[in-house]
Amino acid sequence: MTVPTLTLNDGHTIPQLGFGVFKVDPAETERIVTDALEVGYRHIDTAAVYGNEEGVGRAIAASGISRDELFVTTKLWNADQGTQSAYDALATSLDKLGLDRVDLYLIHWPRPDLDRYAESWRALEQLRDRGLTRSIGVSNFHRSHLERILAESDTVPAVDQIELHPAFAQRELRAFTEPLGIRTEAWGPLGQGKYDLFGEQAIAGAAAAHGVTPAQVVIRWHLQQDIIVFPKSNSRARMAENFDVFGFELSAAEMAAIDGLDRGQRVGADPDLATH
Predict the structure, then answer these.
(1) Phi, psi (rounded to 5 degrees) for 171
(2) Position 176 pLDDT exceeds 90
(3) Which of 14, 52, 71, 250 could bridge across to 254 with cysteines, CB 3.0–4.6 Å?
(4) CB 256 within 8 A of CB 225
(5) What residue ranges define each of the domains in the chain, with the CATH number in brackets?
(6) Does residue 103 contact residue 6 with C-beta atoms inside 8 Å?
(7) pLDDT class for 43, splitting at 50, 70, 90?
(8) Cα–Cα distance measured from residue 8 to residue 21, given in angstroms and rounded to the nearest whole number
(9) Any long-range contacts for 80-89 (C-beta under 8 Å, 24+ apart)?
(10) Cα–Cα distance between 7 and 132 in angstroms, integer?
(11) Which is nearest to 214 in space by CA: 222, 223, 224, 203?
(12) What is the pTM of this model?
């Protein structure tokens, strides 16, 4: 099964469906990522703060998969924001991953209270120019944070990775980013189990109509909006289920019904207030 790719605003392409390793136990990461690669995932999303880059790297090295077939993302943690610290942080991540470059490097959170995200963004431009990352982007950035880096640099972020699920569809932010060519990546695409997403009639009904699971419906809802999505699971069977989402298509009515679940219900931290 071939995962569709989307073209980023810098001309590079990205697999639209990937595998996320947020909160994956570092001791289990190599096994879990190996399972994901064997299922067919070629896009792996990790971060320095997850503490599992080494396990991701071991799984990649053991897989025998050509580097050109893989898309690897990692992220600059808040404590490492700043020019020199950003350089050092990516060097450390590359060492742990066993790679000479990543495909996408993101500022993990804006942390406006630290006031270093614009400086860090300019550092990411230099890291890209040095060939240490192909593309650069941000995560958890509101419009105000994006407007600042757009005003103070020459690069439009390739992506903004944000909390996004049916109860928190982020339409206002996407209306700002998408005309700029900033691709949306969804974290927590299934709501992180913090509300009864799968019990919603719009989702349960679509699942029954297509003979698929509610999770597959929600992943499909993301894909049909050109959102990049990486569901996480420690179960190989669930990984395979989440990957098997290209054999059906939601109707316009089904999409609209799921769209109607949006109620501005954030389940994670507000980027303007987060201080972790």
Answers:
(1) -65, -40
(2) yes
(3) 250
(4) no
(5) 5-195+226-235 (3.20.20.100)
(6) no
(7) very high
(8) 22
(9) 80/48, 81/107, 81/111, 81/114, 81/116, 81/117, 81/119, 81/120, 82/116, 82/119, 82/120, 82/123, 83/119, 83/120, 83/122, 83/123, 86/120, 86/123, 86/124, 86/127, 87/123, 87/126, 87/127, 89/48
(10) 20
(11) 203
(12) 0.96
Q: What value, to the nearest 5°, has the Cα angle with vertex 166 and ends 193 and 181?
A: 120
Report d(CA 109, CA 115) in Å as an integer.
Answer: 11
One-letter amino acid of 94: L
- What pairing do the DSSP bridges indicate for beta strands 13-15 and 19-20? unpaired
> Quick one: pLDDT at residue 274?
82
User: 138 or 234, which is more confident?
Assistant: 138
Q: What's residue 115's pLDDT?
A: 96
Residues β-bridged to residue 107: 76, 138
CA angle 215, 220, 223 (to 5 degrees): 135
Is residue 100 helix, strand or coil?
coil
The structure tokens listed for 180 are: 């700029």
The residues assigned a catalytic role are: 50
CB of 36 closer than 8 Å to CB of 235 = no
- Strand 228-229 and strand 183-187: the pairing is parallel
**What mean pLDDT is predicted for residues 43-71?**
96
DSSP state for residue 17 in the 8-state scheme: B
Q: How far apart are CA 21 and CA 27, in angstroms?
A: 12
Residue 199 pLDDT level (bands cut at 50, 70, 90): very high
The two three-digit tokens of residue 204, written as one number: 């349960």
